[in-house]
Batch of 4 targets.
Target 1
Amino acid sequence: MQRESQTGHEFSIFWVPRRTIVSEKILEEAGVLGDTSIAEFPLYFLPLEKDLLSLELDDSFADLYLRRDPTPTYLLARALMLIQQKHGLFPRITGKGDNAKKLADLLARMRQELIAGEDTNESSKLGLTPSTTIESLIVIDREVDYATPLLTQLTYEGLIDEVVGIQNNQAEVDSSIVGVAPQLAQGSSTTGGAAPAQAKKRKILLDSSDKLYEQLRDTNFAIVGSLLNKVARRLQTDYDSRHGTRTTAELRDFVNKLPGYQAEQQSLKIHTGLAEEIMKHTRTDQFSRLLEVQQNLAAGADPSSQHDAIEELISRDAPLAEVLRVLCLESCISGGIKQRELELFKKMILQAYGYQHILTLDALEKLQLLLSRSSPVASMIPMSGAGAAAGTKTNYTYLRKALRLIVDEVNEHDPNDIAYVYSGYAPLSVRLVQCILQKQYLTSITRGGTNTAAGAGTGGASQGWRGFDEAVKHVRGYTFDEIQKGEDKAVKARALLSGSGEKKIVFVVFLGGITFTEIAALRFIAKKEEGTIKVFQPPLTYWR
């Protein structure tokens, strides 16, 4: 542009969320570094909901576990440091997993660097003292529980993500399912032939601004139909009430409510269409077969008894992602697949879906998601007497009983346990959060089968892993529980300034991705605790 244009230009480059040495090296080699103004825009957490923040890093799972690139951990640490500078230090940092430990170490290092680099005035000291509004930070590494995201999500929001896909709180849906957008429908007469082409896909906003969606999102899909039916009948009754209006005041009141009725009716139309589309998917024999295999594996059934069903899925040309999810689930839960059977499945997959998937299978092996039992990695499971040593593989066989991951009787209409989100399976990742926040409840449901939680009190996050130390040893990765303190004078000053009347917040961070179903389970815990749990994660979901 500079060579070909007669006028001079100024060039600016803004890196989001940070500038890197590598990028500047590339610009320098291209000979343009001196001609540009370079700055960074530290955009970290994006608020997707009032209780949900995300870094929206779509590749963070592959970066962390396949390419072993620590960049997502660093970006998450930077984002959490901004919260600490604004609201005070997390008084306690508890977590599980090797990358989670690296995050905690990075936060401690950044804190020391901040102290060393800042002037020692009172305001900066206050920013580096324990918060009076935050109770603790809980960090869960995705690799401690690979099985949960491999299962098919069964909440309404989870199934929308499985069937249609949700990105940045939006789903792109065929307009034949949810209808044409109102403004497009109104302007269709003037746009001529171009409107039908544009109207094939419609973007639907899926967040709490839609009150109906807020009610439906975290419920098990089994009851969504009856909930929609109730809303439809209520709207019909409210709308029919206009015939009973006798006075002018009553009529005016109805007219004032009309925009609300119309908005709710539009929302009802959208979600009825979406629910019907999902039902077409969930009522197929293939979906039922897949779900049966997944639930049998999660419950600890003999894996070889499920192989005929998996072979049938491949023969029927089921989507490759679904087949691989089932095989990876078996590998994670059962400590690998028998060598001969794994080789047979690999051969079938390559013949049915194409030999380009040699690379896919190789990547899954590197991720330790698809292994043979003869593999040295698959055979490594934590021993109960291993002391403080971190587990090298999550032992689902032990944890299924110790933390009661399978709940036989689940009431989807009025759930009393997080297992409702998978119709009988409680996500291990969220059970670990319960080990810290809901000790008394978890003790009561596990006491019958094991004394793992003996002595666990009601101290919640202030007691860390206490009472569940033995169970946690059987989960992959490093276990840590650290307390952050500040100078006595600064701590007293912060307490005086902020007071201590507010409910304290617990931050739950998922490093490497989280599913919508796990978010629903965490919201269920938050309601039970009558407090607020904030959930943070680099991407929102990572399985695509």
Target 2
Amino acid sequence: MSAAQPQPEKSAPSEAAAPQAARAGEARSSAVMAAGTLVSRFLGFAKTWMLALALGLGSTVTDTFINANNLPNLIFLLVAGGVFNAVLVPQIIKASKGPDRGADYISRLLTLAVVVLLFLTLLVTLLAPTVIDLTTQGYSAQQKSLAVAFAFWCLPQIFFYGLYALLTQVLNANGAFGPAMWAPILNNVVAIAGLGMFIWILGTNEANPHTLDNWGPFQTLLVAGFSTIGVVAQTAILMIPVLRLRLGLRPRFGWRGVGLGQAAKLSVWTLATAAVGQLAFLYIMRIATIPGAERLRLQAEGQTEAAATLPGNAVLEVASQLYLLPHSIIALSLATVLFNRMTRASQDGDRAGLRRALSHGLRTMAVATVFGALALFALAGPLGMFFSGGDRQDGVMLAQTLTILALSTPFMSANFMMSRVFYANEDARTPFFIQLVLALVNVVAAFFIQFLPYDRIIFAIALLYTGGNILSVIVSAGFLRRLLGHLDGPRVASSYIKMGYAALGSAIAGTGALWLLGSYNPDGFAWSGRIAALVTVAVVGPIMLAVYFVLLRVLRVSELQDLLQPLLGRLRRRPAAAGTGADVTGEGAAGSGEEVAGEVPAARTAPVRTVPQRATTSLDTGLIPRISGEFDSASFRVGPDVREEDTTRWGPDGGYLPEEERPATSRGGAGRTEIPLPGRRTYQGDPGRNPYFPDGQGNKK
């Protein structure tokens, strides 16, 4: 054995195999995340459809419930969301790499978090009337009473949202990504069951209108109560896989020396960014409650027809969920996966690699988002009719709101991808300034929007979101050019233009099919009922998609193959099959073509060394304008599956991070050249040896 010659090439993949293995891992991770999101979104839309069926989309009760049900998520993100993801996530991931897999450290963090969450939840719930006053405008005494009743049922969700986020990070840190991905499905199933019981016992809104006058505690239980029970179930089911980790987690007190103070100092810009974004969004949502309150006043005066033409915040919420679909399924998954590639390039000082990753992400996700924008615009009418609960006027208002939002879909996703570059570069200061600009624009605009005619307020807010998405791309691009030199603009623009032509062609084909189905005739088939609207979408949607794919092929848009590769990669187990020659890096075969073509037998047979990913977060910190208050579990993922083949370089001590006390080499924002990672200078020694824990286990100093 002593005579054996060292063969370093077998301890790590070659330069040719490394990018190939990384792409295979990224493809599989992105596909799994997108699949889980797709199922969850499908059930979420089913829940939204049943809510409109039960209560009516344009009813005051629906507006009141949606506002109250959105509050727990918004308050959690405002008060604790940034802390959980920017401070606790890096700590949990670092601790999980210790000899005891972080059991002692994570037990203390969980105990602290549970205590804080309980206090926060109890305080906010007791102050429910004040919270409703601060987040609504123009509510009558009767509507406020119902809003407070909904809030008492919904605000306890804050505790379970926080616990869900923490358990998700514990699972992610131990390579268990599936449970947290599928848990929200149980949430939707429980909420759907409650709405189903409501319809079965009390009837639909169309058959038996549900108003403030005939509303009672039993209806509140079925709608708001089951919504909260669903959140509880979503969190409780995660306890099963957490217990299977056998970490020995238990309540542990004594938090001095845990390191959260230092981590919070390093994350102050991320926390400030989240706070600014959420405060601006809460103010906009307050303005969005005005039309609903005015609708109630008109109904009390007997002006039923005028009241029916006022879209409320329920219309904005449902349109937002539809508009978010391409982003949440494709862009969010792709950005989360590419974040690790961006981080590695940033740590290596590889500005060109960082630019290539951004260019690849922008172009690949555009295949879905550009088509999604035109498809939502074309299908807005039947989609509005389907989600309106059967009311044609509500369907028209939903369709109008959706058409305003739809065309900015690519901009929203592009800005989200751009923001990942800043965080990969460990620069949280620049996103804060970008968010501050956007928040100021949104708040000032919203202030003037409240003085518009009541029937224009929701449409104006939708237009504000669209303008904010476009402005965010412009501002972010300006900062990124200073960081990267250029953004591969000609290539990105060329791809977007080609996709735009293909999407426009598919929209023209869809318009013809919609015309044949009577979508542009008030008495046409598409507007005859919910089932007819669904049939219209089911027929026209595939036609548009088929035309889009054909035109992409004709225009030779190579990014189509990159987007489909995760799906094809699931059918191919070998990494070599996953790398089919598609331009994944954004620079063709440059830098790898020689090695791929040459003979590297040792690399092709060598095992790929699996290493843990560095701590990453995908929290929506508000860098893009929030357009939906609904809880998005995907925001609390830390990155792709650490069990996938990856080529992350090992630190000098064999760990997953560089030296603990050495600041990162990546460049920060203005006036700051080096930014250390959150939590690097906190205690991470042997378990039970922390000298600051007062329980006698450590050696006191």
Target 3
Amino acid sequence: MLFMVQMDVAIPHSVDAAEADRLKALEKERFQELQRAGTWRHIWRVAGQYANVSIFDVKDNAELHELLTGLPLYPFMTMKVTALYRHPSSTYDDDR
């Protein structure tokens, strides 16, 4: 199943800068691992914001939930999740 997820990140100023940097590094490592596996298919930065729009390819809602709640920056994120379905007018057999 494909999902579009908008992630807005707001790390409180009370979080130590070194800890915030550590969490960001872990987040990047996890993202790249999931991208190489084909699970985190696409990511785009939202211009002017500490936010992204991503496309995930997972088995079901439960797998997406597990993945998102396991992200290092999850406690500081607000997310909007949208399930996607291939458009019948698409000229591609596989919209990967």
Target 4
Amino acid sequence: MIEAVDQFVLPFIDSLYGRFGYAGVVIAMAIESAAIPIPSELILPFAGWSVSRGVLEPLTGAQWTYWGAVIAGVIGNTVGSLVSYGVGAFGGRPLLERYGRYVLISSHDLETADRWFARWGDFTVLFSRMLPIVRTFISVPAGIARMPLWRFLVFSVVGAVPWVMLLVWAGMVLGENWLEIKSRLRGLDYLVALALAGLLAVFVWRHVRSR
């Protein structure tokens, strides 16, 4: 499945960058941050590789630069995160309040999430932006919990910056071997996925037992 996604994503990213340059990075990162599975481990190193090759950026007519790719990545991440936040705040919350009991989510769970984000939301969003998988989906629960928008934006951007900088830089350093970044991070992907599956299993078990 992962290889199939990569095979689809790579030509898509190549086409975006060839036509739109930095704007292509914004578009790709916005899609990724809006909870659509286009991994930033492909989007950003590919931009770094474009920098290392001295490719001409189509909108400016100049060569790709490191900071241009980083700024585009952060902007795209912010745009996509706002979309996901809005889905959680204006769509997910009403649906869960009305139908959440059918998927084992009670009003008490929503209240618990509200209290969590009120107390720990800043750090949750900040560190989640540096983790594979989680970084893509954290905006939705933040929106459902109605985390103050300005705080969400600040900590989302601050958390995204080091992730974007690291992956663009890694793409520059590895050059044509930039795809190795995805394979090297795959072990971390599996660990994060396993941890999430474990948390989900505990959540379901506790709710089934209480009923």
